[in-house]
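Exercise 3.2. Students should predict the tertiary structure of the chain below and write it as structure tokens, then compare their answer with the key that follows.

Predict this chain's 3D structure.
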Amino acid sequence: MIMLYCECGEAVGCADNDYALAHPEECGQPVGCSDNDYALAHPVECGEAVGCADNDYALLHPVECGQPVGCTEKFIDNYRCSPNGFDRQREKLFADCTKQWVTIETCTFGCQKVFADPSVPVSCFSPPADVPPQQPVVDNLPHVSIDVPASAAPGAQLGIAVTGTDDIDVRELNLFNSNNVKIASFDCVGIQATCSATFLVNAPATPNTAYTFRARSKDSVNQESGFVSDSGVTTAALAVPLPAVSRAAAVPQVQRVVPRPLQDITVRFPLQPLFMRSLSFPDSDCVKPGESALLAVKVQNTGRAILKDVVFSAFVPELDLRSRIGPLKMASDDKLPRFLGIDVPENAPEGTYLLRFTVNNNRFTRAVHRSFVISGSC
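Answer key:
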């Protein structure tokens, strides 16, 4: 081989990269473990950590190297007063290694951070000297009483008085039959420790039949009283002797008797300037399907001020039947009658229905229930 490097301008000796790689010691290059590439390729020979002894390897293979996976859930000694100024909070480390502030106490009068060191717990402000300590609010179960007429004529209307009491307020009165099926409800509006209502229902149509009704009250936090019941019995039918009729006598024609309206009802609402004098069906409380009935109500403003925005409403839930008049004004001692038309649908099933009548404005709501009959034979 002919060497003409010098003559041809090529690098010779250590200036030649190939020659330098082949003679590293001669050309002053690191050799063995002092060479990074060699050290990486021969870690044991060059004293480098391998496997789990290598931190980078151990981080990538925690299970193999016996390291715990994730974090241990625990509280951290880091405290603060919450942004709203009332919650003592401590930082907590969760299993996914995230940190969150957790409320450990809510301070009634606010909290304070006395020291800048976050590891020092936060304290609550003491109540002012002139503020008495707060007493816990005790809200016991409400109570209820019921008064059912001891006797009634078969099919007559009963006025059942129900009164609920509570140490804070009574919200609702409910009336049930003997099978614990709710048949009527009364909404006690406003905050009142005592609430009373009269429910109107029909007695059994047969004589010498016992009837039982149950009542229950509910307060504003939906606590309910126990059931309280009262009973009565329908009176015996009077035996009416039939006149003697000779065989030759003509048989008289049977006259259809139109049911007479029930007697007026009087309902007083305690603590309210409203006296309901009567609620009745002037024509008849028996209506044929497809016909209309007239409901008459007489109320009296017993207060000294004008009652504004008074609304009279009637509602039969089974038929989705509604009627309303108002809003009206009632002057002091106003006791004029008001009338509502009840339009019975043609497809209404025959039977006895309970009509809910309400009088309300922006100050009170009061309700009375009245039964009526839908029949094609009315």
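Discussion points: The longest helix spans residues 17-22. Residues 62 and 76 are 24 Å apart (CA to CA).
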